[in-house]
Amino acid sequence: MSDPAPRHVRLLIIGSGPAGYTAAVYGARAMLQPVLIQGMQPGGQLTITSDIENWPGDTAVGGPALMQRMEDHAREMGTEIVTDIVTKLDLQQRPFTAECDSGARWTAEAVILATGAQARWLGLPSEERFQGFGVSACATCDGFFYRGREVIVVGGGNTAVEEALFLTNFATKVTLVHRRDSLRAERIMQDRLFKNPRIEVVWNHEIDEVLGSDTPLGVTGARLRSTVDGSLRELKADGVFIAIGHSPASELVKGQLPLRDGGYVQVEPGTTRTAIPGVFAAGDLTDDVYRQAVTSAGMGCMAALDAEQWLASQGEAQAGPDAPSMAEIVAG
Ligand code: FAD
Ligand code: NAP
Asked: Which residue ranges have their beta carbon within 6 Å of ligand 2?
């Protein structure tokens, strides 16, 4: 049996974090009849966190609840929301084409990329071996399993501090291991961390190896290496939470769009326009500086407005003979 014919849409939004859903709200209100593909993490990164205290209008709101509200809002405005994962994206010619995990195919006049970012790992074989058996990148998901136990959190940013604080709800002791002698987390977060009697910080150390047992498979601690003199020491723990940041999910467009250092999709400053006319990028996928829910949402809004303006300027026509070739685009 041959593949089903692709469905054609005016605006395809890839990703369901704050950037994608905000683009969907604006795109729907501009009558672009957007279709949004949610990906493997419907709601994006905020679905794995607890309280958000910097979303304007909410003194505190749960991550999953906020993202559910955004989804409902986008749907209510007229966005079609599809539970699927884009596995291949062809931006070489218009209409652009997307293939999904389910086998569904889409063609689109304009595309908004809002695929966000994913947790980064240390890259140690022992870390991989114990993933799901004491090694985690999500305290909200796995913290509950450490009631009355001791855990290590690795990292020095907002995520690491937030994870360490959250874990004190369960663990009797949380040791934050950071490779430098100062944190990059916000001051207010640092203050909370330093005041918490259950948290100890080990400065100037990184994880040399996650230590554990085979039967049953589980973590028993970590060997730490000093970043100052290279000396080694062991720390007992039942779990290791890796919170060292995220990498942009730009695999779909690698080789098709210019990427900045770290794999972030490059956009024209002050806009969400990528190097390919009709393709826009928003949120953590393109942002290595702010990486906040509210900035991602702001960029989602910008992307929908940019897309609307571009579609209007094209009369939604196919690319003309003056359109730059892929080689010209990627070479800048
Ligand atoms: P994301 O939220 O990363 O969403 C990306 C979306 O793209 C996902 O839905 C995913 O399924 C989808 N996707 C990826 N690949 C594909 C594909 N191939 N096909 C289809 N879809 C795909 N920020 C704050 O402002 N306040 C906070 O308190 C806060 N707390 C945080 C706590 C944690 C633990 C973390 C990790 C981050 C936190 N942040 C916070 C940062 C915030 O979550 C991000 O800045 C924001 O979620 C980025 O939004 P986004 O829409 O760009 O992408
Ligand atoms: P981040 O700010 O990039 O911090 C990553 C941390 O991990 C840094 O301290 C870094 O050390 C350390 N690190 C990186 N690679 C490492 C390695 N291989 N080994 C050991 N340590 C390593 O990432 P993040 O904390 O995930 O935050 C991402 C964004 O989301 C930020 O913009 C943040 O503000 C936002 N966020 C906001 C909130 C909030 O507002 N409440 C909560 C969570 C996240 P160095 O410091 O030495 O580089």
From this structure: 54, 122, 154-160, 162, 179-180, 184, 206, 244-246, 291-292
